[in-house]
Amino acid sequence: MKVAVRIIGLSMLLLVNYCAFSAEAPATGLTKPKTYLVRHESVSNAKGQFMLAYALDDGTTQTKKGTLVQNDDGTGFVMNQEGSYSFITPEGVSVKTSYTAYKNGFVVKGNPV
Q1: Considering only CA atoms, which of 106, 112, 102, 40 is closest in space to residue 71?
Q2: Which sign, positive or negative, has the C-alpha torsion 15, 86, 48, 72?
Q3: Strands, E, within the chain: which ranges?
Q4: pLDDT per residue as tens digits for the range 21-72
C-alpha cells in the first residue's frame, strides 16, 4: 500500500507542478498559454490498487491503473501498471502512447514510438 500511495502522491505532485508551471507566464511568442485541468479522477484502496486519470484543456490526457502483487519468491511486492497518455505537439501532431509495466519489464506502444 505504501508504494501505491507514494506513486499516487508523486503523480499528483507532478501534475500540480506541471499545471502551476504552465500557468505562470502570460502567453507570448516564447511562452505557452495557461493550461487548465478539466478532468481528474483518482481512486485507491488498501490492497494497493489505484486508478488515476486527468485531462488538460490543451488536449493532454493521462490514465493509469496499478495493482500491487507479490513477487515470485514471496518476499516483497511488485507494482503492475498499465496506462496511456496523449498530447498534441506544437506542430499539431497528436501523440498517443500506451504502456504496461510489470515484473518482467516495460512495454510501450503507440505513435511515434
Answers
A1: 102
A2: negative
A3: 37-44, 50-56, 61-70, 77-88, 94-102, 105-111
A4: 444 555 555 676 788 999 999 999 988 899 999 999 999 999 999 999 888 8
